[in-house]
Amino acid sequence: MQQYDAVIVGGGPIGGHIAKKIAEKNYNVAIFEKNKQIGVPLNCAGLITEKVFNFLNFDKNKVIQNKIKGANIHSPSNYVLSIGGDKVHAVVIDRFSFDNEIINLSKKNGTEVFLKNKILSIQKSKGFIQLKTSKNTELKTNLIIGADGPYSIVRDRFGFTEPIEFLKGIGAELSGTNLDSNFVEIFVGRGIAPGFFAWIIPINEDGTKARIGLCVDQNAKYSPKIYFEKFLKNKFTNQFIKNSKIEKKIGGVIPLGVLKKTYDANVLIVGDAAAQIKPTSGGGIYPGLLCANYCSKVAIDALNKNDFSTQVLKKYQKLWSADIGRELFLGMKFRKIYKNLSDKQMDKYILKFSNSKFTDIITKYGDIDYPSKLVKPLLKKAPSLLKLIPSIIKE
Among residues 250, 256, 285, 261, which one has the least CA distance to residue 271? Predict the structure, then answer.
C-alpha cells in the first residue's frame, strides 16, 4: 500500500495549486484525477480578472487569449447597458494551458499525478485515510483534500452538506463571429437563461472567435440544450454569430451556496467541491485559488505538527470565511433578488442604469470578484433601490 502525506482528489487548478504549495515544503503529495487528461473536458467560459495571477508564479501571457475592457448587458427586450470600456477589467484565458501550467509547476515540486484514476472507496481507520482507485491502486494518507468538483466524492463520503443549488451550463467555441473584442455580450431574460444569463465572450483580438454559452437553474422548464439552441437563433444575437461555426462544445455544472463546514478530522474541502464560487457570475477560479492558499497553509501547519484533528483543520474555515465568506454570502442574497425579477423588471432596471450617472459608478467601483463593492455607491446615488434588497438590509 502506497503512503502519502497528503492526497488531493481532483487535478484542476485548485487541486494543482494546493499540491504545489504542499509539495514545495518537501511533503509527499499525490493528485488523483478521474479524467485522462488535465484541462479536458473544457467546462469553463475562461473569463477571469488578472488578480488571479497574484496567486500563481508563471508567465500569464502564456495563457491569456484576449483582454476585456467592458460588457454590454442586453435586457429581454434588448435594451443595452454598456459598462466599462476605460481599462482592462478582465482577461480571457486558455483553460487547457492554464490548468496544465499549474499542474506542471506542481509536478516540478514533486507532486505525483495519477490520471484516469477515479477514487472508488474512502475509509477512515486509526487516524489514516485509506483509498482505493479505479486502477486498483491502494493507498493511505494523513490528509485528504477534496478538490473534485461539483459532485465531490470526498464531500459525499464524509457527510458534508450539499451546495444549495446546481446550475447547468452548456456552450461552445465558435469561429466566424463578429464582435468588438473589447466587450463581452451578456443576455438576460427568463426565456433566454432562466435563473442566470447567457454570454458571448470574444477570445481573440479580432473578435472572430468566441465562447458562447448559458446556464439555467435547476427549476428551468426546459433542458439547457433547448435554451442554447434557441439562443443561437435569437434575433438579438444574430449580429454577432450569424455566420459562425461551432468548433468545440462545452458543458458543466456550477454549484452555488458555499458549504458552512469545509473541514473534518483528516479532511479539507475546497473549490467547486465546497461551492466556493461567486453566485453572481458563476466564476470559481479566483475564490477557489484564494481558498486554496488558506487550505494549503492549514494543511502544511497540520503536517508540521503531525496533527490532523478538527481543532487544527478548522482554522481553514476561519481563514477563508474571514476573507471572502461575506462576499459569497451576499452573492447568494443578490442572486435571490435577481432570480425574482421578471423580464419587465429587467428591462426597467437596465434602462434605469443606462444613465451615465450609474454607468460611471459601475465602471469605477465594479469588481467581478467583489460585486458587493457596488452596493453603497449605487444606493447613495439611487436610494429607491433599497426596496430591491430587504433581505440584505435585515442581515
Answer: 285
Reported as a single tens digit per residue, the pLDDT across 199-253 is 999 999 999 999 999 999 989 999 999 999 999 999 999 999 999 999 999 999 9
Burial of 324 (0-12, 13-18, 19+ CB in 10 A): buried
- Residue ranges and CATH numbers for the domains of the chain are 2-41+96-162+260-335 (3.50.50.60), 47-93+165-255 (3.30.9.10)
| Residue 90: closest CA among 73, 115, 119, 65 | 65
At residue 31, φ and ψ (nearest 5 deg) are: -110, 135
Cross-strand pairs, 254: 167
Q: How far is CA 388 from CA 191, 336, 382, in A?
A: 22, 10, 11
pLDDT (tens digit per residue) in 162-178: 999 999 999 999 999 99
pLDDT, one tens digit per residue, over 48-99 is: 999 999 999 999 999 999 999 999 999 999 999 999 988 999 999 999 999 9
Return the C-alpha cell found at 282. Answer: 458563476
Cα–Cα distance measured from residue 368 to residue 88, given in angstroms and rounded to the nearest whole number:
12
Distance separating alpha carbons of residues 213 and 231, to the nearest angstrom: 9
